[in-house]
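Hey,
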Amino acid sequence: MQLSSPFLEIFLGTLPLLATLFVHGAGMNVVQWRFRRDRRIPHPSRLRHAAFFATTILIMVGTHLCEIGLWSGALIGLGAIASLRDAFYFVSGTYTTLGYGEGTLPAQWRLMAPMIAISGLFAFGWTTSVLMNIVAQANADRDAAERAKGDG
C-alpha cells in the first residue's frame, strides 16, 4: 500500500498503538487482580510467594510478547514487512528500543518505527510501576505479619 501523506501513516500507526495499550491494560489488570486475590491468604508460604512472583513475571512478559505480535501483524498487514519472523525481529528491537539497526521500514512506513518505540517505552514504564507497587505492597504485608508475630 502506497501512502501519500504522513498523516495517514500516523493515523494507521495510532490504531495498533491504541490496541497495544488496551492489551497492556488488560495484562496489568490480570496481574493486579491476582495480587489482590493472593493477598487474602493469611500466611502464604515462601514457595507460594515465589510461585506467585514467577507467574506474575510470565504474565508480564506474555503481555509484552502479545503487543510485539500485534505490531508485527500490523506491519505485515500493511505490507511493510513480508514475513512474521522478520516483522517480529524488527518490532522486538524497536519496541524495546534496543535498535540493532539491521533493517529499516520502507520509506512510506518509517514513521511506524518511532510509534512502536513509544508504545514499548510506555508499556515498560507501566509494567515497572505495577511490579514495583506489588513488591512494595508484598513487603509491607510481610513486615506487618512479622510485627504481628512479634507482638503475639
